[in-house]
């Protein structure tokens, strides 16, 4: 996941290159490659990745000296990280004092049946109806993803966090960037909740 909007958000909040940056949950490594092109020294990690640009290791197991990174980026990844609290403690060790943490997250607590029904409607409009109901999607997501409140609580002992900035997220999920404006308009009308949250922090 490395839309122009996400790249702009990361660049706007990271220190100027060249500095060393850790990307957590890097997937295919698209954002890491974009940041490297911009001059950053990026270590991208994701235990489920098979990309040559990403080290297949979990955050909690990352064997790097403490304070190795001037910044860290976590794009829709911390809600999957286990064990969460121990991983966030390790993240605090890896980022140097005063270093930057940039987060873009899915707030599963805001993902209700209204949001799920809107997403299902957009998928149907694309000619790709889904087999699950809105209720089933909400239950499935809330059953296995960490809520935003728990993620922030796990980070707070190690980082000074700014307030979450709420916004769109559902368009990332099998819809595409073209649906971002549609989702933003739906949020503005009150038709769908804002399920995205961006947070910027500093290492204590």
Q: Pairing-aware structural class of the strands and helices?
A: alpha/beta
Q: Note the total helix count.
A: 7
- Would you identify the regions where 5 or more consecutive residues have pLDDT less than 50? none
The largest sheet, given as strand count, sense and whether it forms a barrel, is: 7 strands, mixed
What is the CATH H-level superfamily?
Vaccinia Virus protein VP39
Mean pLDDT score, rounded?
Answer: 96
The fold-level CATH name is Rossmann fold
Number of domains: 1
Tell me, what is the CATH class?
Alpha Beta
State Rg: 17 Å
Helix content: 25-40%
DSSP strand (E) fraction?
A: 15-25%
CATH architecture tag: 3-Layer(aba) Sandwich
Number of strands: 7
Name the helix and strand elements from N-terminus to C-terminus, one letter apiece.
HEHEEHEHHHEEHE
End-to-end C-alpha gap = 28 Å
Shape, per Cα inertia axes: globular
Task: Explain this structure.
The protein has 204 residues and is of the alpha/beta class. The protein contains seven helices and seven strands; from the N terminus they run αβαββαβαααββαβ. The chain has a single domain, classed as Vaccinia Virus protein VP39 (Rossmann fold). Helix 3 links the parallel strand 3 and strand 4. It is globular and about 50 Å long.
């Amino acid at each position: 996941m490395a839309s122009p909007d996400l790249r702009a958000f990361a660049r706007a909040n990271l220190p100027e290159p060249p500095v060393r940056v850790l990307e957590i949950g890097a997937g295919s490594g698209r954002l890491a490659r974009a940041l490297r092109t911009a001059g950053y020294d990026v270590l991208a990690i994701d235990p489920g990745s098979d990309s040559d640009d990403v080290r297949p290791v979990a955050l909690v197991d990352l064997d790097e000296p403490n304070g190795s990174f001037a910044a860290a980026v976590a794009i829709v990844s911390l809600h999957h990280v286990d064990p969460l609290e121990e991983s966030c403690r390790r993240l605090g060790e890896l980022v140097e004092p005063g270093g930057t943490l940039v987060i873009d997250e899915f707030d599963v607590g805001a993902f209700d049946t209204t949001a799920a029904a809107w997403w299902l409607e957009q998928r149907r409009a694309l000619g790709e109806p889904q087999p699950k109901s809105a209720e089933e999607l909400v239950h499935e997501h809330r059953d296995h993803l960490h809520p935003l409140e728990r993620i922030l609580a796990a980070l707070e002992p190690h980082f000074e966090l700014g307030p979450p900035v709420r916004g769109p997220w559902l368009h990332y999920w099998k819809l595409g960037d073209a649906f971002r404006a549609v989702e933003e308009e739906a949020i503005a009308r009150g038709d769908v909740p804002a399920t995205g949250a961006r947070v910027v922090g500093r290492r204590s």
